[in-house]
Amino acid sequence: MRRARPAQQAKLGDNQYKAHELTFAGELITCGHCGAPITGEAITKKSTGKVYTYYRCSQYKRIAGHPSIRLTEAEVETQVLDLFHRIRQLEPIRALFQDALRDFARSEREQSRHAADDIQRQLTLLPKQQDQLLNLRLAGEIDTELFGRKGMELRDRIATLDSQLQAAETDRAQQAVVAAKVFELSQGLEQQWLVSKYAEKRQILELVCLNFRLENVSLVAEMRKPFDMLAEGQFVSSSRGDKI
């Protein structure tokens, strides 16, 4: 996801309103027509002093035939909340999904244990190979150069296996824990969004989606896993016997 450019600004009366503080500006969304960033502008109505925020393609005036579409912040936010609503599951499905995540965690821990056992077996063989290499050198059967090169290879192999052992013991199990936390978070996104400020909202969007584009007046999101599966209702069918 492309980051905001702090230099971008939109005039707000006599003040300056930084465009990167607008929730959906800062290159968060691209135009489905030309691929340019969607920019935001905050306009103050002189008669009331009320601020209205709009979003449009940054290049629509420069490209012939480009649609002149401008959405209010409320219109964009409504579509984002609809996306979060589609992620939220009914209680029976949530229970099934959580059961499946627990099964997944158990499976991952078992696979991690087998992987760790295999790596540990390899590690027990390497000191013996180091001893054999030293004995060959002491017996004069290999020269100093070969001894040094093979010794380095064995030390590198030990370091690599040590690293793999730590990963096997933690990474896969942690992935299952993270998946459970992500799912729990996903079920309260609408409520969290409504009480969040700019920075928190941007974090939520980056957590849930890879990118956004504006197709005419519709916000199209490419979602991260497992949010995409939840939004598309794929777990409903998978809960009938298929895998997650």
Strand and helix map with partners:
Elements lengths: L8 E4 L2 E4 L10 E3 L6 E7 L6 E7 L13 E2 H15 L3 H48 L5 H43 L2 H6 L3 H11 E7 L2 E6 L3 H5 L2 H5 L6
Parallel strand pairs: 3-7
Antiparallel strand pairs: 1-2, 4-5, 5-6, 7-8
Helix pairs in contact: 2-3
3D structure, described in words:
The protein is an alpha+beta fold. The chain folds into 2 domains: 1-88 and 189-244, no CATH class; 100-187. The protein is 55% helix and 16% strand. It contains 7 helices and 8 strands; from the N terminus they run ββββββαααααββαα. The chain has helices at 73-87, 91-138, 144-186, 189-194, 198-208, 227-231, 234-238, and strands at residues 9-12, 15-18, 29-31, 38-44, 51-57, 71-72, 209-215, 218-223. The strands form 3 sheets. A 3-stranded mixed beta sheet has the order 3-7-8. The protein starts with 8 loop residues before the first strand and ends in a 6-residue tail after the last helix. The model is unreliable at 1-20 and 236-244 (pLDDT under 50).
